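Need a sequence for this fold. Nothing fancy.
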């Protein structure tokens, strides 16, 4: 046989195998998706801005789509119905966490993790219960509101000292979000606004994990925490110790909480401020509400319940810029059938919440920052309406949501109420770069640089 014909036939074998497998398989097919090349699959169709690419592909292939990367199958849900199937109807089967081999969120020595726990095992269950009752319950959060208000007043003090100077807004509020969490657990600040303090290396460590996907040396981190001897606030730590968690496991848990909770909250605040700078009419409405309800006082948590426009601004920011645009990747614990398609065991599952939030068939004029759309809307953060679940839903729903939805509005309101803000270098608000950069979380590509001026 002519070698050319022979090699062409050889190349066709995988296609024939796939064809016959599909014809004779008893299972329904995989969800539709773009053509996958042998071995590399859809690798060359992907890129860094995965949320955009997946949204465009879903327009062609539908709300439940599959991609292949080598042997790995990835399923993407891109509509409220598909999200409901993944996060509610098949929540149990799809409640594993998919962790890429390169990202070492699970310490191999401990074989222990929380957000990165590969399945909902006893460790994970124990941690969820303790977090819910001893860190994020309404009672605990209420008893710690002085911590958040103190940290926010330090933030306002620091920004006051920077009047007329350019500040990197995201990095500045990041310090406050970190110290809120470190004080809630240990009664200590991890670092100050100059980056000095016991947790000074923490930022570098988290950037390595979250943005660069690098394998950091966690052994530097554990002594920082264990060295603290768990002083101060004891309830959360006592509950963990009582349940038999070791110091190393507790350190790993704190690292998980810091990774999941601090960047996400600072990003939302940064995006919200960027949108307020671009939409001065919204900024003025928000200011009017704050002035009406609070007068010249500092913003307190007790004010938040009376600030519906502030809440709408936060919700609108989370619609356009969910820090987890694809939520956190899940993993199929077993093969199951969803919307008439087969999802094989160990598939990676993504929910494109970013695409759902920008879908014109769900949200009118979706690219406009229009908080008013949330004023008379029943959409909330509970994860029951699948057109809007920035905190996820089901078993793996964000446990930090009760804290996040207190601290983000508190800080945003304080920034708006206490300062006038100007863009650096005389930039006009229409020139503000709103491009994003997606690396696990959705960052602003150009950090927001603003100049504060205290309001009288
Ligand atoms: C605006 C802020 C935040 C947003 C938008 C957010 C969003 C999310 C999302 C989408 C998930 C994945 C849910 C799923 O798989 O269905 C998640 C998981 C998680 N979040 Fe948050 N989060 C925020 C703040 C926080 C805070 C403040 C903490 C804690 C201090 C936190 C701790 C966690 C943890 C531990 C997980 C993993 C839960 C698990 O796998 O069981 N998050 N978050």
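Here you go.
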């Amino acid at each position: 046989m002519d070698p050319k014909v022979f090699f062409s036939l050889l190349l066709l074998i995988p296609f024939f195998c796939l064809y016959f497998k599909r014809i004779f398989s008893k299972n329904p097919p995989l969800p539709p998706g773009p053509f996958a090349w042998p071995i590399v699959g859809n690798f060359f169709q992907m890129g860094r801005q995965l949320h955009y690419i997946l949204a465009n592909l879903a327009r062609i292939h539908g709300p439940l789509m599959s991609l292949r990367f080598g042997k790995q199958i990835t399923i993407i849900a891109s509509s409220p119905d598909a999200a409901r199937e993944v996060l509610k109807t098949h929540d149990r089967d799809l409640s594993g966490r998919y962790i890429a081999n390169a990202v070492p969120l699970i310490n191999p020595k401990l074989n222990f993790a929380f957000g990165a726990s590969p399945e909902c095992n006893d460790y994970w269950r124990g941690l969820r219960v303790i977090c819910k009752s001893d860190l994020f319950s309404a009672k605990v959060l209420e008893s710690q509101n002085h911590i958040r208000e103190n940290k926010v007043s330090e933030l306002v003090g620091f920004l006051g000292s920077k009047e007329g100077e350019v500040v990197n807004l995201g990095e500045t509020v990041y310090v406050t979000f970190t110290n809120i969490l470190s004080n809630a657990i240990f009664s200590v600040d991890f670092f100050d606004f100059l980056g000095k303090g016991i947790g000074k290396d923490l930022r570098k460590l988290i950037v390595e994990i979250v943005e660069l996907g690098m394998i950091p040396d966690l052994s530097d981190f554990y002594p920082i925490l264990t060295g603290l001897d768990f002083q101060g606030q004891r309830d959360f730590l006592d509950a963990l110790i009582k349940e038999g968690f070791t110091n190393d496991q507790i350190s790993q848990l704190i690292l998980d909480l810091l990774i999941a909770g601090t960047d996400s909250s600072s990003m939302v605040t940064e995006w919200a401020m960027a949108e307020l700078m671009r939409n001065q009419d919204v900024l003025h409405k928000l200011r009017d509400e704050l002035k009406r309800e609070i007068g010249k006082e500092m913003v307190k948590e007790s004010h938040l319940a009376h600030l519906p426009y502030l809440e709408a601004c936060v919700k609108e920011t989370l619609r356009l810029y969910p820090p987890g645009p694809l939520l956190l990747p899940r993993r199929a614990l077993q093969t199951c059938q969803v919307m008439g398609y087969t999802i094989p065991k160990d598939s990676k599952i993504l929910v494109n919440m970013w695409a759902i939030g920008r879908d014109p068939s769900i949200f009118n004029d979706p690219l406009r920052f229009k908080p008013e759309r949330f004023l008379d809307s029943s959409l909330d953060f509970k994860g029951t309406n699948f057109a809007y679940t920035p905190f996820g839903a089901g078993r793996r729903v964000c446990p930090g949501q009760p804290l996040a939805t207190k601290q983000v509005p508190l800080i945003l309101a304080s920034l708006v109420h206490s300062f006038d803000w100007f863009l650096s270098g005389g930039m006009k608000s229409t020139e503000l770069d709103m491009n994003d950069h997606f690396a696990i979380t959705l960052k602003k590509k150009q950090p927001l640089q603003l100049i504060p001026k205290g309001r009288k």
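For context: The mean pLDDT is 88.
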